[in-house]
Q: What sequence folds into this?
């Protein structure tokens, strides 16, 4: 696999350089060299201690080449409708098998730009070169691999003092006949005083062991506001490795919601850099998994300047033999006085075969700050369960109600009614309940 | 209606708490069970409602001649047992109205009936709220979350009013209530009394019994009912405490 990817890069290096220009080309070159040296991560690495890529790497993949043309598939709007948010008037950027699908999408250049990286290398090369691989500072093989090879994905640019008129949905569907390995990258730039809401979803459609390696870079300028929701409810054969980088300037607000409801292996690296004072970051996550599913959340919030706030709430409900990992690091640098940082990770294990490894890490180098963190691992509260049953609510429904109640905090940053309805429907289905 | 016969129960580790309780409750009656801390009052209510952490080691609990012991807590609720909890549980994210709807429709499903029509449900909820002098904004609040002590207890009686049980057990419903809240709660309970249902009031204090007047008062001590009487017994307990009863029973 490692060699296949190095060869793939070598084969396309010249074309990539021609398209993206020297600055990006040298970033790609450095990234592939580093990837070559590092190889894929193993459980011996501290950052991959609880997550093994072994099974994922044992699969034979077809790799999506950087300049793939539209593949043959018979997907129509009605086949995919159930994945879209109902009744929501939204822009859509849809990719199928790593390739942009214009006939499933609804993009714009009116007021805001909602389009693709693929088309922007030609139309807007300087802007893109400036924003591509500008924030993805992580010395991790999968991020490096993506940096070297990715040239397609969604691009959102919201100009100064503009509120996006509609939410934006970004979809990656995979339906290839053979397991497919794709590198995709989203770039979101929200200029000062602007506002946008984005929902992203990765979905495989045919039960093959597809692997998507995604990177998202979100730049939030002064006083800008972004809400970005990741909806991960894939089939139990799919692997998703995702790294998202958020860079916030002063007075900005950024929310990243991560809903991980399915997939064989999901790894979410989420990194916030608070670079301007009075920035506010919200990281909310809800994991509901079953069977042999595995979800690893690794978050990092870097308080680099004074007067910023971060609020992180991750909840997980683990059934079957599923395995969750939470590693939440908060860094408060010496100059970041008056930081407010809150982190909470709560987990429910529904049986003794399910597993959670949780590790909150606070590193505080400033003295005038308010930081708190906590984590809990437990079972459903028997007092509460008895209370509900004593009111006549059958046990399965009572358990589900309690799980809903447990998960509720993680939904606090969901504001779109259509998204809220979708999430409730998915959660109810996941928990096997019909309660309102 | 309710017949508790030589009931013995305790914890799974073998600790015995109830040591042979006998109690007969007939339709239309109000019974009060009083007793010092640790006498087994709350265990008795939990065992009747079906809490699985307690093990019944002997005797029986019958409702209309049928044993409840093999029934789950939800089955007992469907048969008409209602327990007003001493410490109602907070459930964030589940509104009072959704909770009531879920509970009420579970009762209906157990009787083979479909869900109650939304408009009728709302009408019923409004009526019962009025009875307990509660604002309708209450319905959209998360169940017991951030409720004051009085609100939690009123919410319990509100649920009782909605579910219309045959036998209601009020476990320390009065503890922590100021006199106004107590009056409202008692008024609610009294309004729900009928010749076909019954109420068992478990309390430390005689105060509640001025508002919900019992037909019988029983004293529970060390897991047994050691004395039964009329409401005068409650007054005597208020005045003299429990020591005289403990002494009376010391030799037995």
A:
């Amino acid at each position: 696999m490692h060699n296949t990817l190095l060869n793939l890069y070598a084969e396309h290096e010249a074309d990539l350089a021609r398209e993206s220009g020297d600055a990006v080309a040298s970033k790609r070159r450095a990234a592939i060299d580093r990837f070559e040296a590092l190889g894929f991560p193993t459980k011996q690495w501290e950052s991959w201690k609880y997550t093994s890529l072994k099974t994922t790497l044992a699969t034979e993949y077809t790799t999506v080449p950087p300049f793939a043309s539209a593949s043959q598939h018979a997907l129509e709007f009605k086949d995919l409708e159930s994945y879209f948010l109902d009744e929501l008037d939204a822009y859509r950027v849809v990719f199928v098998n790593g390739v942009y699908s214009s006939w499933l999408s609804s993009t714009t250049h009116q007021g805001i730009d909602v389009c693709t990286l693929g088309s922007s290398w030609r139309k807007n090369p300087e802007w893109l070169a400036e924003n591509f691989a500008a924030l993805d500072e992580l010395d991790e093989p999968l991020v490096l691999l993506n940096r070297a090879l990715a040239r397609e994905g969604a691009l959102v640019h919201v100009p100064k003092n503009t509120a996006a008129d509609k939410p934006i949905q970004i979809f990656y569907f995979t339906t290839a006949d053979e397991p497919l390995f794709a590198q995709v990258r989203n770039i979101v730039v929200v200029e000062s005083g602007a506002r946008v809401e984005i929902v992203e979803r990765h979905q495989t459609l045919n039960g093959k062991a597809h692997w998507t390696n995604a990177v998202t870079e979100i730049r939030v300028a002064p006083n800008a506001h972004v809400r970005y929701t990741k909806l991960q409810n894939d089939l139990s054969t799919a692997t998703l490795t995702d790294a998202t980088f958020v860079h916030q300037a002063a007075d900005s607000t950024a929310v990243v919601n991560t809903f991980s409801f399915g997939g064989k292996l999901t790894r979410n690296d989420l990194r916030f850099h608070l670079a301007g004072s009075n920035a506010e970051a919200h990281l909310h996550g809800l994991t509901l998994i079953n069977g042999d599913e595995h979800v690893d959340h690794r978050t990092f919030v870097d308080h680099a300047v004074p007067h910023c706030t971060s609020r992180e709430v991750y909840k997980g409900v683990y059934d079957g033999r599923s395995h969750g990992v939470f590693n939440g690091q908060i860094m408060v640098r010496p100059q970041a006085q008056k930081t407010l940082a809150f982190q909470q990770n709560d987990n429910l294990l529904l049986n003794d075969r399910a597993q959670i490894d949780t590790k909150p890490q606070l590193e505080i180098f400033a003295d005038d700050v308010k930081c708190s963190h906590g984590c809990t691992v437990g079972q459903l509260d028997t007092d509460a369960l008895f209370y509900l049953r004593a009111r006549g609510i059958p046990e399965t429904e009572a358990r589900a109600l309690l799980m809903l109640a447990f998960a509720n905090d993680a939904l606090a940053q969901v504001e779109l009614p259509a998204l809220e309805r979708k999430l409730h429907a998915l959660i109810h289905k996941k928990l096997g309940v019909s309660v309102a | 209606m309710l017949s508790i016969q030589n009931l013995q129960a305790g914890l799974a580790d073998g600790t015995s708490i109830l040591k042979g309780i006998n109690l007969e409750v007939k339709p239309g009656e109000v019974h009060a069970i009083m007793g010092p801390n640790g006498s087994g009052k709350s265990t008795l209510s939990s065992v009747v409602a079906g809490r699985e952490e307690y093990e019944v080691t002997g005797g029986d609990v019958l409702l209309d001649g049928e044993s409840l012991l093999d029934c789950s807590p939800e089955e007992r609720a469907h048969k008409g047992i209602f327990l007003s909890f001493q410490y109602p549980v907070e459930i964030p994210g589940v509104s009072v109205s959704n909770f009531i709807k879920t509970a009420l429709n579970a009762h209906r499903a157990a009787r083979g009936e479909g869900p109650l029509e939304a408009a009728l449900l709302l009408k019923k909820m409004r009526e019962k709220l009025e009875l307990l002098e509660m604002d309708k904004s209450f319905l959209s609040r998360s169940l017991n979350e951030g409720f004051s002590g009085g609100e939690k207890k009123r919410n319990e009686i509100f649920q009782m009013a909605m579910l219309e049980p045959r036998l209601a057990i009020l476990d320390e419903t009065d503890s922590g209530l100021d006199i106004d809240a107590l009056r409202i709660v008692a008024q609610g309970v009294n309004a729900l009394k009928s010749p076909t249902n019954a109420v068992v009031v478990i309390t430390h204090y005689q105060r509640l019994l001025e508002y919900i007047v019992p037909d019988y008062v029983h004293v529970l001590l060390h897991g047994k009912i050691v004395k039964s009487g009329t409401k005068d017994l409650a007054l005597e307990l208020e005045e003299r405490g429990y020591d005289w009863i403990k002494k009376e029973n010391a030799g037995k």
The domain at 2-250 of chain B is CATH 3.40.50.300 (Rossmann fold). The first strand of chain B starts at residue 2 and ends at 11. The helical segments of chain B are 41-49, 73-79, 96-110, 118-131, 149-163, 179-192, 231-240, 243-250.
